[in-house]
């Protein structure tokens, strides 16, 4: 059990029940910091049980639509090489928006921002972006 769970007041048994539940269903993460909604729902159940141990979730079907299911994010070739799989730079959002290459992703993002009234000068990078231009130029 992680220290984070312990610090939040969960027991080993509570953590095990949560972890076993999400492991049984499917791959529960999109990436190292992005859980699928099935994992979020199971975690929400853990929180609810902290407040009311008599809750019976077997009588409730918790369904939340996951907006990322229709989206495809690539496994970048640099990451894929480390995993021993083929990678690419192909994205799909919904049923109709498809594009290839990092420059296309950036252009798509800026178009979406502009449509919401957000201009490039409104965006401020968070963290280190020292080599972002090198990365993007290498993919053009």
Estimate the strand proportion. 5-15%
Distance between the termini: 44 Å
- Number-wise, the strands total 4
Number of helices: 6
Q: Which strands sit side by side, in order, in the main sheet?
A: 1-2
Overall geometry comes to elongated
Instruction: Let me know the largest β-sheet.
Output: 2 strands, antiparallel
Question: Which radius of gyration do the C-alpha atoms yield?
Answer: 20 Å
Contiguous runs where pLDDT drops below 50 for at least 5 residues = none
Overall helicity: 40-55%
Structural class: mainly alpha
- Count of all domains: 2
Helix and strand pattern: HHEEHHEEHH
Q: What's the average pLDDT?
A: 80
Q: Strands, helices and their partners?
A:
Elements: H1 3-7, H2 12-25, E1 29-31, E2 34-35, H3 37-51, H4 77-83, E3 90-93, E4 97-100, H5 102-115, H6 132-138
Antiparallel strand pairs: 1-2, 3-4
Helix pairs in contact: 2-3
What can you tell me about this protein's structure?
- The structure is a single chain.
- The protein is mainly alpha-helical and 140 residues long.
- The protein has two domains: 3-59, no CATH class; 77-138, no CATH class.
- Helices cover 44% and strands 9% of the residues.
- It contains six helices and four strands.
- It has helices at residues 3-7, 12-25, 37-51, 77-83, 102-115, 132-138, and strands spanning 29-31, 34-35, 90-93, 97-100.
- It has a two-stranded antiparallel ribbon with strand order 1-2.
- Strand 1 and strand 2 (34-35) form a beta hairpin.
- Helix 2 packs antiparallel against helix 3 (37-51).
- The protein starts with a helix and ends with a helix.
- The relative contact order is 0.07.
């Amino acid at each position: 059990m992680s220290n984070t769970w312990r610090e939040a007041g969960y027991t080993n048994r509570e953590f095990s029940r949560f972890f076993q539940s999400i492991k049984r269903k499917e791959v529960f993460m999109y990436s190292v910091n992005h859980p699928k909604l099935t994992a979020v729902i199971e975690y929400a159940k853990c929180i609810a049980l902290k407040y009311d141990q008599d809750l019976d979730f077997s009588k409730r079907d918790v369904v939340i639509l996951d907006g990322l299911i229709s989206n495809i994010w690539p496994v970048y070739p640099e990451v894929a090489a480390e995993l021993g799989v083929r990678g690419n730079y192909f994205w799909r959002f919904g049923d109709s928006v498809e594009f290839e290459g990092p420059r296309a992703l950036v252009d798509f993002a800026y178009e979406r921002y502009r449509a919401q009234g957000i201009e490039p000068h409104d965006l401020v990078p968070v963290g280190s972006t020292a080599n972002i231009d090198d990365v993007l130029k290498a993919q053009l």
